[in-house]
Backbone:
């Protein structure tokens, strides 16, 4: 009988648990090393603790949610995609349901059920887990993985290692970016790390603070770059976005689902030294002309009303007050005294409410880390390193980041599954 292969999986997150389960299922002797005191701490916080495991979108739309790096995942998704994931979860007692936007959640509404199912998948097939064990270094001899060394100085031999240490966001869950250092030390190229799905900071701090807590549904956002010629250029979002969505004002700037989804484009543009503006269309269902006409009508209908009062028919109270303050006539005069030109400026504000973007909250605050191990150095069929034999890299440690909607977890699960399979048979 063939001796069982020693496979070490570094990190018991979404990708690592899946990799360990699959490698063990195929007969490998699997040791899963996790630096925290429990597995899948990040899984537990996903989807507001409900864990949006994947999405019902067809494959092509799924791939576009990863922006320009999506095609790298095509092969993995052909082999292990949503149906396979849901079947596996069902095998371990987790039924799922599809919700708004195709988002798929456990029917129980408990992220812990997903974590527990994956943990059982790994352990029932014989994988051993050691907690409080942080790996510091991958041991390599003649360009082949031979084992790992932990922070405590212990070494463990292995014929194959799967690096599943996640990104560098939400470090309290254990994802502190260790894997990037280990991969770089072995000669892998790192695409610069940036936060994605992250709130943005603005220059108009006082205005943001005044609006803190206001949430707007059904508004549209466009990112603009100021060009030397004075004309604004539209910055494309990192992946296709719905035309409208929800925006939330915070004391430092802008957040909410729509802002998070386009944030990576703003982060990259600011990093590149561009002057970036976010233009909010507060009335995307109306053209500028329609807004102007309605304003005119209401000014005529309620001539004695003051502007903030009138705008409350359009917008939440504090936003109505702020917009009134931004018009030259100010808040105090009755609207019949406001000239047509100023009324048009108000219509412009409603259609094009501008914020200068200064950056974002730090990497730790992003929901995912963009950047990471360069994909060209990884085989998309086995997630094997093209630098070091016996090494596989999976999940967020790779240069992969997607929109919200369950895409990031599916990438972690699919890459983990394929790497587990490959490592067991390397
Ligand atoms: C608040 C929040 C909500 C999210 N919601 C969703 C969602 O609903 N749907 C979705 O698809 N995505 C969501 N994401 C993103 C998703 O959670 C991640 O993309 C995914 O967990 C990445 O999986 P991973 O296995 O690569 O890394 P992780 O799940 O981060 O796991 C990495 C593991 O490695 C361990 N580790 C790190 N370094 C070492 C070391 N040196 N030695 C040993 N172990 C180590 C860590 O402790 C951790 O357990 C969310 C993220 C956040 C922060």
Residues:
């Amino acid at each position: 009988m063939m001796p069982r292969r020693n496979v070490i999986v570094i990190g018991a997150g979404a990708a690592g648990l899946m990799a360990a389960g699959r490698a063990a299922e195929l007969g490998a002797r699997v040791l899963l090393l996790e630096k925290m005191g429990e597995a899948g701490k990040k899984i537990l916080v996903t989807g507001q603790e409900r864990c949006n495991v994947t999405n019902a979108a067809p494959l092509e739309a799924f791939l576009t949610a990863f922006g320009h790096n999506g095609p790298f995942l095509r092969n993995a998704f052909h082999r292990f995609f949503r149906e396979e994931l849901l079947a596996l979860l069902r095998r371990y007692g987790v039924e799922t349901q599809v919700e708004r936007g195709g988002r798929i959640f456990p029917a129980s509404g408990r992220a812990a059920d997903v974590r527990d199912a994956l943990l059982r998948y790994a352990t029932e097939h014989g994988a051993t887990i050691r907690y409080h064990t942080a790996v510091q270094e991958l041991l390599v001899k003649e360009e082949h993985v031979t084992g790992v060394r932990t922070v405590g100085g212990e070494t463990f031999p292995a014929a194959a290692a799967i690096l599943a240490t996640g990104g560098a966001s939400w470090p309290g869950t254990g994802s502190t970016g260790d894997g990037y250092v280990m991969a770089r030390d072995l000669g892998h190229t790192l695409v610069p790390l940036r936060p994605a799905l992250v709130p943005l900071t603005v220059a108009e701090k006082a205005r943001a603070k005044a609006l803190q807590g206001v949430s707007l549904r059904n508004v549209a956002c466009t990112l603009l770059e100021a060009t030397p010629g004075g004309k604004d250029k539209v910055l494309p979002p990192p992946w296709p976005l719905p035309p409208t969505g929800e925006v939330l004002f915070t004391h430092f700037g802008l957040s909410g689902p729509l802002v998070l989804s386009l944030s990576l484009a703003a982060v990259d543009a600011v990093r590149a030294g561009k002057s970036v503006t976010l233009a909010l269309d507060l009335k995307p269902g109306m053209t500028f002309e329609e807004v102007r006409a309605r304003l005119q009508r209401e000014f005529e209908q309620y001539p004695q009303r003051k502007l903030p009062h009138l705008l409350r028919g359009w917008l939440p109270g504090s936003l109505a007050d702020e917009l009134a303050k931004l018009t030259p006539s100010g808040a105090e005069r009755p609207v019949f005294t406001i000239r047509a030109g100023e009324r048009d400026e108000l219509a412009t504000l409603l259609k094009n409410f501008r914020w200068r973007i200064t950056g974002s909250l730090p990497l730790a605050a992003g929901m995912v880390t963009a950047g990471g191990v360069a994909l060209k150095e990884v085989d998309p069929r086995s997630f094997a390193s093209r630098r070091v034999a016996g090494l596989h890299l999976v999940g967020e440690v790779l240069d992969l980041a997607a929109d919200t909607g369950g895409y990031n977890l599916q990438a972690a699960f699919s890459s983990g599954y394929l790497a587990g399979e490959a490592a067991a048979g390397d």
